[in-house]
Input
Amino acid sequence: MRAMRTWDLFCNVIDNYGDIGVSWRLARILARDHALAVRLWVDDLTVMQRIRPEIDPARAQQTLAGVRVCRWQADTVFPAPADVVIEAFGCQLPASYLQAMAECTPPPVWINLEYLSAETWVNVHHGLPSPHPRLPLTKHFFFPGYDAASGGLLRESDLLARCAQFQAAGVEDYWATLGLPAREPDEWRVSLFAYEASALPALLDAWATGQARVTVLVPEGRIVPQLAAWLGEPDLQAGNASQRGRLRVHVLPFSNQDDYDTLLWACDLNFVRGEDSCVRAQWAGRPMVWQAYPQDATAHFDKLDALLARYGAQMPTPLAQIVGDCWRRWNDVPGAPDIAGCWQALQAQRAAWAAHALAWQAERAGAPELGAALVEFVQKR
Ligand code: TRH
Output
């Protein structure tokens, strides 16, 4: 039987950081937790450099955390294909590489890693084969997801232990590294990573005028211009801080992926978006508000409802209702109530939400881990 020790993972960066964020995380898990030889082929290393500043986009090949990171360009001459080939999110494999795969005996196991969704149809499509129309190759669809019948969620083997250790003993020191004072007992420390959001000004108003003190930590990115407009500070940038009423705003530099985890672990509430930060907020075991990646014809509303249905299933009724309203308003779902009311209602639910976030983290940890599920899937082929 073939050993399946060598893996090629292809990532085409479409927009934002999710494509490379997920691909990098998977590559590192395969290398670190499964001792596999992984090459990660990336067509835009400048984006990868944002989440891993050690990456030098000028270099054709470099090794990071045990992964061989390779620049993928139109004129790249590829080595012999690996035992396992993963195309992330349906990116097209280079024609010459595909041809070389077809000439291998036996051919590599070929996987298309799909986007994450909490929808139940994922379970039906997970693992399905798709024969190539011309070449003697079969691609398999691998769907991340929330059920045992899906590919699961990415989670490093030591993640929850590191998170628990930090939350038990590291948070105060962490605030000091950001130049922040110790957290007040009634204060909310909130991280805000978001696309443009029409509810933002009303949310900032609610925070500025609410009972509880709020410190919002905003990694620089797409939401900052809206924040700058609300503050009346057009030159707002990373490193700036402002106070409005009970609200303190800090704009943070975009950090490396591991440091972003630490921010999620430290905060009382995390606004996250897309795919990878959403999963990381769940592993942080802290309350979260998710903004789905906007799709044509509001297809993302189905994804939102599907995750909300799971996330809210074990919540007490008032909390489930308020959290659902809040998520829907943050995602511009028509008819969702205003966010100021949601925020006010959430104050009485703070402890219940925090307890639920830990229970949700534990429940998720009982489901498949994507890297391990992928290795098992490949071994069976
Ligand atoms: O950047 P995103 O909006 O990516 C999106 C989604 O993945 C979406 O599903 C996909 O279709 C689209 O891209 C193309 O959100 P996401 O998925 O959370 O990825 C952000 C990554 O950036 C994640 O790996 C965490 C990382 N990150 C940092 O490394 N440092 C930071 O300071 C922040 C805020 C994020």
About this structure: The pocket of 2'-deoxy-thymidine-beta-L-rhamnose is lined by residues 14-19, 21, 51, 115, 193, 219, 254-257, 260, 273-277, 293 (CB under 6 Å). The CA atoms of residues 29 and 156 lie 6 Å apart.
